[in-house]
Amino acid sequence: MTLDWNCRFPENMWFGKYLNLVFFTYLQFIQVSLLQIGPFQAHTEASKVKVKIRLNLHGLVSVESAVLINDYQRNGSSTDHMEVDSSGDDMGHKSRSERSIQRQELPITEYIYGAMSKHELLEAQEQEQQLAYQDKLVEWTKDRKNALESYVYDTRNKLSERYRSFATDSEREQISVNLQQTEDWLYEEGDDETEAVYSSKLEELKKLVDPIENRCKDDEVRAEAMRDLLKCIVDHRNAAKSLSTPERDAVDNECNKAEQWLREGSQLQESLPKNVDPVLWSCEIKRKEEELDTWSNYLCLITL
C-alpha cells in the first residue's frame, strides 16, 4: 500500500487476511523508508491487522503500533430443561454463540533508504568513540602540562617566602635547580609530551617539596591542636567531679598523663628549628585527644 499526501492522519487502517499463512505487510511514503510489519500468522478468516499511522509536524510518517486481531466465534447450544415428558424428550432449549477476540502486538521494522547498515553503524560509533577519547586525551595532556607549569612557578614563589624558614639551604638549592630544569624542559623538548610524562615530572618535584610543605602546614595547625587537647583535659576533669572517688582519680590520672605528654613534646618541639621534621605532629595531638575522649566515655558507661 502506498500513502499519498491526501490521506488523513492520524488514521486507523484495517487490513483483512483470509488465508491462514505467514505474510508481510509493507508501507511506503515518498520512498524515504520502508516499514515492515510482521511476520505473523492469521488464525481465522476474520483476522484483521490494525495499524496506527501518524504524520508529525515535520512531515515524517511513523507507524506507532500494529495489532493482529483474531476473532474466534463458534456456535453452541445450552439446554435448559424446562419441561420433560415421560419419554425424556426436551420440551425446550436455547441456542447461543460464543465469541473470543485475541489481540497480538506485531513487530515493526523500519528500513531507511540510504541509511547505514548495522555493521557500518557500529564501525562509525567505534570511530566516534576513538575520536572522542583522543579529544579527551588532548585535554588531559594539556591540563597536566599546565599543572606542571603552574607548580613550578608557585613553588618557586613559596620557596622564597612561605616555605623559606622550613627548608634548609641545601633543600632550597636542590629544589631551585630542579624547578629551573623543569621549566627549561617544558619550553624545549617537553613542549609536546604525553600526559604520563608530565605527571611523572610533577611527582618528581612533589617528592622534593612535600616534606617542606608538610612542615609548614603542620606548624600552622599545631597550636590549635594543642589548645583543643588542653580544653579536652579541662572538660574531662570538670566532668569527673560528679563521679565517685576511684573513678575521679582514674580520670585525673589519665588527664595528667596527657598533659605531661603534651608539655614534654611541645618543649622538645620548641627547641628544634623549623626546617627539620617535627617531633610533635598535629595529627599525634589529635589522636591523643581522641584516645582521652574514648577512655573517659568508656569509664562513664561502666559506672552507670
TrEMBL record:
The keyword Manganese belongs to this UniProt entry's keyword annotation: no
InterPro entries referenced in this protein's UniProt entry, alphabetically: HSP70_C_sf (IPR029048), HSP70_peptide-bd_sf (IPR029047), Hsp_70_fam (IPR013126)
Pfam families named among the record's database cross-references: HSP70 (PF00012)
Entry keyword Chloroplast: no
Domain of life: Eukaryota
Keywords: ATP-binding, Nucleotide-binding, Stress response
Basic and acidic residues bias spans: 80-100
Molecular function in Gene Ontology: ATP binding; ATP-dependent protein folding chaperone
Annotated Gene3D superfamilies: 1.20.1270.10, Substrate Binding Domain Of DNAk, Chain A, domain 1 (2.60.34.10)
Region of interest (Disordered), ranges: 77-100
Transmembrane regions: none
Protein name: Heat shock 70 kDa protein 16
Natural source organism: Zea mays (Maize)
